[in-house]
Amino acid sequence: MSQTKVLIIYTGGTIGMVEDATSGSLHPLDFNHLSTEVPELEKLPIDLDVTSISNPIDSSNVSPEVWLELVELIEKNYDAYHGFVILHGSDTMAYTSSALSFLLEHNQKPIIFTGSQLPIGKLRTDGKENLITAIEIAGDYEGGRPMVPEVAVYFEYALYRANRTKKISAEHFEAFQSPNYPLLAEAGVHIKYNRFAINNPSLDAPALFCRKSVCTDVASIKFFPGMRREVFHAVASLPNLKGLVIETFGSGNAPTELWLREELEELIKKDVVVVNITQCVSGKVIQEKYETGIHLERMGVIGGGNMTFEAAICKLMYLLACEELTTADVKSYLGQSIRGELS
C-alpha cells in the first residue's frame, strides 16, 4: 500500500521536555521541530504530522476534559490518518488510555500511547526509542489492515492493551505491566506481534462512534483491616453518587460486618452501581468462592473479574454517561468484556 500517515498528539509530560545546553534546565520541546531532536524520524517510511491539546499539562493534572479533547481530536482527524501516537505523561497514562478505549466505540485504527521516564532531551532518555517504535506500530499495516487496530500503550520494548495496563514503577524504564493479559507486541531486532492477543474487528464493523461525555459522580474505597464504618459512610453518602468501585482482598473478599452489609444495601437500594475489584496485582474477583465474597454477590455487588482499577473506574464513568442505558444495563456491561478489558 502507499505510505502510511500518522498523527502525533502531544498532551504534555516528561517526554516533551528538552534540556537547555547552557543552564541545564528543562523546557517544553517545540514539536514543530521534532525532527531536530529526533533526527531518526526522517528515516521512517511514514508521513508524520504533529498537533497538541490546547493546554499541554503534567499528566497528574489530566482530567476527563482532556480525555474528551483527545476524543475530539481523533474524531476530527480519523479519516485522514492511518494511526495515532499520543504522547502522555506516564503517571496517568493507564487512565487516559483506558478511558479512550471505551469512549472510541468501534475504533479500527492504532491509537498508541507512549511517554518516557527521562525527558527526550536527556542523553540517556528512553523517549526516543519509545517514540520511534510507537510511530512504527501506529503506521504498520499488512494487506491494507493495521497490525494493531486498538488503543494500546507502548513503553520500553513492550506493547500493552491500554485497558489492561498499570504503571508499576516510578524509577525503572520498564514502567508498566499488563498483569492479566499477554503483550500485544515485543520490540527487539524486529517487532514481534502476538496476533492471538490483538483485537481485530470484522471488516463490516460499524464506523467510529465517539462518546462526548463521562460521569464523574463516582468514587472508590480501598478496604483495609480495621476500617471504620464512618470512613466508608463518608464516601458512600456523597451527594449524587452513581457508581462506586470497592477494592477488596484476594479474590474479592470483604468483611462480613453487619455495618458493611447495611451500607452496601443502602447504596444498591439507591441504584448506586457497586463494582468489586481485587487489590492484588494479578488474579481476579470470584465472589462466589468464599463466604466473604458470597455476601457481596447476594447483595448485588458486581464482580469486576480481573479488571485493573484504572479500567474499572473509567469503564464505570463511561457506562454511567450512556443515557440510553438503564442501571440494569450498566451492571450487565460491567460484568462482561466490551473492549477486552477483562477475561
Description of the molecule:
The protein has 343 residues and is α/β, with parallel strands linked by helices. The chain folds into 2 domains: 4-210, Rossmann fold, CATH 3.40.50; 218-334, Rossmann fold (3-Layer(aba) Sandwich), CATH 3.40.50.40. Helices cover 26% and strands 22% of the residues. It has 9 helices and 20 strands. The strands form 6 sheets. Strands 4-1-5-7-10-11-14-15 form an 8-stranded mixed sheet, sandwiched between helices. Strands 17-18-19-20 form a 4-stranded parallel sheet, with helices on both faces. Strand 12 and strand 13 form a beta hairpin. 41% of the residues are buried.
Shape verdict: globular
- Biggest pleated-sheet summary: 8 strands, mixed
Share of residues in helices: 25-40%
What's the alpha carbon Rg, rounded to whole Å? 21 Å
Number of strands: 20
Query: How much of the residues is beta strand, in percent?
Result: 15-25%
Domain module count: 2
The CATH architecture name of the largest domain reads 3-Layer(aba) Sandwich
Helix/strand/pairing category: alpha/beta
What is the CATH topology classification name of the largest domain?
A: Rossmann fold
* C-alpha end-to-end distance: 35 Å
The low-confidence runs, each spanning 5 or more residues with pLDDT under 50, are none
The strand order across the widest sheet is 4-1-5-7-10-11-14-15
Q: What is the CATH homology-level superfamily of the largest domain?
A: L-asparaginase, N-terminal domain
Instruction: Write down the CATH class of the largest domain.
Output: Alpha Beta
Sketch the topology as an H/E string, one letter per element: EEEHEHEHEEHEEEEEEEEEEHEHEHEHH
